[in-house]
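Changelog note: in this version the structure field was regenerated for every chain. One regenerated record is shown below for reference.
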Amino acid sequence: MEQPEPRKNKVAKYRAKFDPRVTAKYDIKALIGRGSFSRVVRVEHKASKQPYAIKMIETKYREGREVCESELCVLRRVRHTNIIQLIEVFETQERVYMVMELATGGELFDRIIAKGSFTERDATRVLQMVLDGVKYLHTLGITHRDLKPENLLYYHPGTDSKIMITDFGLASARKKGDDCLMKTTCGTPEYIAPEILVRKPYTNSVDMWALGVISYILLSGTMPFEDDNRTRLYRQILKGKYSYSGEPWPSVSNLAKDFIDRLLTVDPSDRMTALQALKHPWVVSMAASSSMKNLHRSISQNLLKRASSRCQSTKSAQSTRSSRSTKSNKSRRVRERELRELNLRYQQQCNG
């Protein structure tokens, strides 16, 4: 069996792909992420020794170009403590290099599992930071459109770390006063709002639905809507059908459930805005009236159970294709064709 390439060679391979203007300023340290059209590397600024992340996007492909344009359009406009910051950009004919803040504290749920203790108060602290960021985006006419736990990262490993919203590849940026209705079908299935499923023009309230899903997972480690069959999953979402059964829900306050219910509202005009969510009594009081029961055991058990079952289904899917396939990310996206079929069935049921 062939020996794996030494890490040094791997870094050298990526360094060779980088524009000399980038490598003149930054030392390439390690590959930390990859997407269909992008690579993310950890770098060090040569003069200040400050660590950063560089996202290298292949713009010779149309999809790569679109993702890059939408991400740059947003990141050039934003400056907020809970949103990943763009430092500088290098552009060539085939690639764009985005130098960004480096979030080293890991994903939201990895931190919860490692923490050992998690209460409703901890949940409100997390949600306050995310809502602050989302409120700021919405004020600027920006809709993220792909809010999910993987896109919420801690800035550093310390207990006092802030949370940052990342990955603006699907974001929509409108100037104030523009028609704020969007039509593009996009997102991740479990977090997608009902109005996108029925292919109606939609507003930034789709982000608030996604935050309802995130809040539900944050307090339980389980998903409000889940089914391996996409059509069944979408039907659950369209009905807004979820329950508070199983652990740790009996220990979760009614006020916390009320917060989730006001976000997982099928009619977007009845859904809370980011400002209303920040003013909800559960968030304002930082769950003061809730029991400070440690929900950690149930949440982490549920999260780990879900991760292992997802791992099993991924393995069986990968037995028919290479695990290196770049399709893995795309298959987690909502597909236009599925929604056409779903809506056709619904129309037939209504007419029948």
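Spot check on this record: The radius of gyration is 21 Å. Residues 317-330 have pLDDT under 50 and may be disordered.
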